[in-house]
Write a structure and sequence with these properties.
The protein is of the alpha/beta class. Helix content is about 40%, strand content about 15%. The strands form five sheets. Strands 3-4-5-10 form a four-stranded parallel beta sheet. α4 (about 75-95) runs parallel beside α5 (about 130-145) and α6 (about 165-175) crosses α8.
Length: about 290
């Protein structure tokens, strides 16, 4: 989802890109003369070493992860493999050729009691997903000297086989179905398009360490869907303010995942984007997922 958007942006900037896919093909909109596509199972024996040796990247960006919170509870070993062990392998491979390593992390790492968490606040995971992502951060930092970790929560990057949260909500509203959106769960979302731009800017600045890279506005999931509906002229009466306490979820979730972005704003010399700016970057309601970019 994020990876294909990043490939397209780098291609348009004239970079040579090697894109590694597994179950699905790289979307046609992200292909081009500067893009080499390799289909591989990264967890296979020696796969990471072989790909890195073949492509010899200056920068290796890891967008891989098991991101379904409930699936992580049900498939612990797979969560460990994709969210932690593979991260260490990729970081080590990058380090071996003196490449920079960029790892995409999450805003899901804390208990959700405090809002607008800074990078230096101790991690307090409440589920398997968060624990394995936290372990992945440690694996990245310990295996590559030149590592950049981005904690984030992005939207606006659906693919034909998987919807992002915003596209799911819009599809439901367009179909005239009620959307139950949590009024007691908060986050600081950023569009994938703007996040990609921040990733590239941070790489150019040779940033290292951990950065919160998210939107500057703390929104509830309810506010997110409501403002999305307003932007695209959808029926706001279909949106119901719900509580996460009403739902019997497989895994516990933090109620507040909002991130303080003052550190990255200071480095880049600009405030992180507002929600409206993220919506502007998406441009229009996408009925054709395959042509959304």
């Amino acid at each position: 989802m994020l990876g294909s958007r990043l490939v397209r942006e780098l291609r348009d900037l004239g970079c040579l890109v090697t894109a590694v896919t597994c179950q699905h093909n790289l979307p046609e909109a992200s292909r081009g003369v500067n893009v080499t596509v390799l289909k591989a199972d990264l967890v296979a024996d020696n796969a990471v070493k072989e790909i890195v040796s073949l492509s010899k990247p200056d920068v290796l960006v890891n967008c891989v992860g098991l991101t379904s919170v409930d699936a992580c509870e049900d498939h612990l070993e797979m969560a460990k493999l994709l969210n932690c062990e593979l991260v260490g392998q990729l970081a080590s491979a990058a380090n071996s050729i003196k490449a920079r390593f960029v790892h995409i992390s999450t805003d899901h790492l804390w208990s959700g009691v405090d809002p607008m968490i800074r990078e230096d606040v101790a991690i307090k995971p409440v589920n398997v997903y968060a624990r394995t992502k936290a372990d992945g951060e440690r694996a990245a930092l310990s295996n590559c000297l030149d590592t950049l970790i981005l904690r984030t929560n992005f939207f606006g990057c659906s693919l034909p086989w998987r919807n992002s949260f915003d596209q799911w909500a819009l599809d439901e509203l367009q179909a005239g179905r009620q959307v139950n959106a949590f009024g007691d769960v908060y986050f600081t979302p950023i569009s994938a398009a703007l996040l990609v731009g921040k990733i590239i800017a941070l790489v150019k600045l040779e940033a290292r360490g951990v950065y919160n890279v998210a939107g500057c506005e703390r929104l509830s999931k309810y506010d997110f869907v409501l403002r999305l509906a307003k932007r695209y002229g959808m029926d706001e009466n279909l949106i119901r303010r719900a509580s996460i306490e009403e739902i019997n979820l497989r895994a516990p979730r933090p109620k507040d995942m909002s991130l303080d972005t003052s550190k990255v704003s200071a480095l880049l010399g600009a405030k992180m984007p507002t929600f409206n700016e993220s919506l502007d970057s998406i441009n229009q309601l996408r009925s054709d997922h395959s042509n959304q970019y």
